[in-house]
Predict the 3D structure of the following.
Amino acid sequence: MRAVDIIDKKKHGEELSKAEIEFLITGYVKGEIPDYQMSAFLMACCFQKLSAQETTHLTDVMRVSGDVMDFSDKISGYTVDKHSTGGVGDKTTLVLGPLVAANGVVVAKMSGRGLGHTGGTLDKLESIDGLKIELEEQDFIDIANKVGVAVCGQTGNVVPADKKLYALRDVTATVEDVALIAASIMSKKLALSNQGLVLDVKTGKGAFMKDLDASIELAQRMVEIGTLMDRDVIGLVTDMDIPLGKTIGNALEVQEALETLQGNGPKDLVDLCTELGGRLLVLANKADSLEEGKSKILKSIDDGSGLKKLEEMVEAQGGSLESLHNLKISKNVFELKSSKSGWVQSMDALSMGIAAMKLGAGRETKEADVDLEVGLKLFKKVGDKVSEGEALLNIYYSDTSKLEEVKKQLLESYTLSDIEVEQPKIILAEVLKDKIVKY
Ligand code: URA
């Protein structure tokens, strides 16, 4: 086999075999195929498109390019995972994981760090004193078995092919292709042997995918890959035009997750966790219908069993319960007031995520540090009535150097209307292996 022939075949729109894709990807990871040939291949994929089968082959070859974690005979019962394509204020994992575990379904999850305007679960978890996110594989499995939910950072060398390919896609204008994105995400998700997976594909201003139809297509491609690889996968396309919940920032989001498990969560976050969790319970055969699954999730909020699971997970991962219940949040607070009256018509999630990042809650580059104590607490969201002089949000800050800029940016993120505005929907579409439903 020669790389040039495979590139030529794809350039002419022909279907590649698994062996051909494997030859290219493994050769590239080993350094035997140079960047210029891989760049040409990626560009050919953008123009000629990969079929569902080719995308699945690519995903599988990437998946096994490094360490895979097969716990199918080490964790008893059906295990599940959730993936979010990333958003602003997205603390879903911290609520959903314990609620699903409280219903007897094991959640074994590898999470990531935040970058740019989007937050990451690992940073949020580090707001809890002592909590370890770097777990040895055996400890991760033991915690998943004992507690029912474990969340860790990437262990070992997971999907090195994606790291190398992503860096190349970034500089060759080949990031946006939906099949390449789907293969990149799913290769990392499927490197763990979870049987059930629910995908939360965010769409809107604060999401990586801004357009609803493109987000549905991405969900479709990922569901196709999962199905062809014998996993049970459901995709929900959810709103990220506005931040999720009422907080943005690490400790603030953990506090909100805790309050949600105590029964005092914001409606959009509770609804999202109920929709995702209800589906996971159906996949795991713990509920006969979505309605039953959703009501079981809500019951685990009401009876405190979800909260208990979060506490058990925190303790099992070395975290302090005292710290979980008394999170350190900056004492420097600025109340940002509205300069006029009306109803909140829109909020710019991207701009608000960037504002939080400027305060230190997020990182501009992979290497930057985050300040766990800073961020935003939102009092007004789309559909809410506001009076002139009323607080829109609180800014929690550590250093004042960017405060004026952040205040201005946040005020500009809100658009008010003179007439009443409806609350937005959180679930916009559902993608199953055989159908798509738009809400
Ligand atoms: N996120 C990923 O993990 N990969 C992509 O290609 C795009 C977003």
